[in-house]
What we know:
CATH architecture of the largest domain: 2-Layer Sandwich
Strand order of the largest sheet: 2-4-5-7-6
Number of helices: 6
CATH superfamily of the largest domain: Histidine kinase-like ATPase, C-terminal domain
Number of strands: 7
Strand content: 15-25%
Amino acid sequence: AAVSHEFRSPLTTLRTITELLAQNRISDESRRRQSYLFLDRETNRLHRLVEDLLDFGRMESGRKQYRMEPHDAFQLVRAAVSDFSEEAAASGFRVETNFGSGPATVQADQEALRRAVRNLLENAMKYSPECRTVWVDGEVNDHRVSISVRDQGMGIEPQEQRAIFQKFVRGNEAKKAGIKGTGIGLSMVRQISEALGGEIRLESKVGSGSTFTIVLPLADN
C-alpha cells in the first residue's frame, strides 16, 4: 500500500499539470517555467523510485552485482551530498559536513555507497519537519571508516529500532505524523552496507533525532 501510494500521488499530480499545460490553461510564463521544472523534478523522483524497487529486488534475491574497487569513502560521500544539495535546498534544508583527516580508502561499489548515503539523507530530511539542518560526519578509527548522517527529527522508539531496517517497516511516530514512504530505503542501506563488508548502526531518541552510521573496513594497503 505504501509503495502504491508513492506512485499514485505524484502520477496524479503529473497528469493534472500536464493536462493544464496541454490546454494552455497556465498562461503566465513564470508559472509555466515552474510547472516544467516541477515535472522534471517529479519525473526524476519517480525514475529513482522505480530503479530503487528493481535494485532492491535484485539485492533480496542475491542477483545484485557489486563492482568492488578501492575508493576514498569521504570523496564518495561528498559527491553524494553534492548531488543531493539542490534537492535539499529546494525543500529549505542545508547539509553540513565534517570529515576527519587521513586516508579513508575502502573496497566498495561507488554507486551503491552513494545510493546508501543518499537514502540516509532523504530519510533525515523526510523525518525532520522542524530542524532544517542535516549533519554528515566521516571519521577513521580502529581500521574502520564511519559515515554518519544525523538529524534532529522525531526519532525512533527503542522497541522499533531493531526492526526499522526490515523491508516495509516504518516507525509509529512517522505513521502518526502522516509521513509517506515506501519502507525500503533503510532496508536498502542495510543490504548495501553488509554487501560492502560493513554494517549500519542506529542511535535514536524520540523527540531528539537519529544518527545512522555506515561502518566499513579500511581497505588493505
